[in-house]
Task: structure prediction
Amino acid sequence: MKEDFALGSNGKKRASGNLLYGVAALLLIVLGWQCIAWSVSWWRGVSFPTPFETGWKLVKMLAGEPLLGYSIYLHTLSSMGRWLGGFSIAVFSGALIGMAAGRWRTFERLTMPSVQVLQLIPGLAWIPVAILLFGIGDGATLFMIAVTAFAPIAINVAGGVKRVDEMYIRAARMLGLNNRMLFRSVLLPGALPHILSGLRVGLGSSWRVLVAAEMVVGRGTGLGYAIIQSRWTLDFAKAFVCIAIICGIGLIMERVIFIPLEKRTLELWGLKREV
Result:
């Protein structure tokens, strides 16, 4: 009982400490942003949106002020939809190729060199290929997201499957498990830490390339498209609002969704995170 109380107390202290550090880090960012805004206005004589101006613009946009003829909600949903489509393609294809490469040596030797090469190519370098294949529009954006996230997912899944102890696989075979049961009961839990690592890397890469793709091959809606179009209207406060939303969504996906999901999944399978 005393141990449980002590653990609970330590957990609350840790949570309070994390909250204080988070607030301090946020204040530091805001202070640095404000100093940069003052410096640019003094040095170059141009208006640089401050944190307050950006926050107030965000409130007005959330209340209905249009951005390029559409609401900020539509721009955000358009970006999220494109990212979700491209990332889903990458997860499905990367997991499939990674599982096969980790399980069969011949398949690995035939396919993984190409996957390694794909990982070396920056997301923006795919722009001319995307335009040639799909033209300007959502197809090109989905392609860039999928091809950027595919390589880290496939490589991590293959690495995780290869690290599963062969003794467990032989024992499963002796117990009569077929390929589907072997995958579900042995390979998937054994490779889970690597799979989650691959998904996190792929998520970050695909989210970054989404914004860049919308800037170059986007059309009509999307946060990246809205940011690049602000150069014509000189409404940089709205561009800063879009950047803030991009940061917020990235933080939510990483801190609020993915890390708790990863922790819960590892606990469920009785695994520990590899460092």
Summary: Residues 189 and 269 are 6 Å apart (CA to CA). The mean pLDDT is 84. The two ends are 32 Å apart (CA to CA).
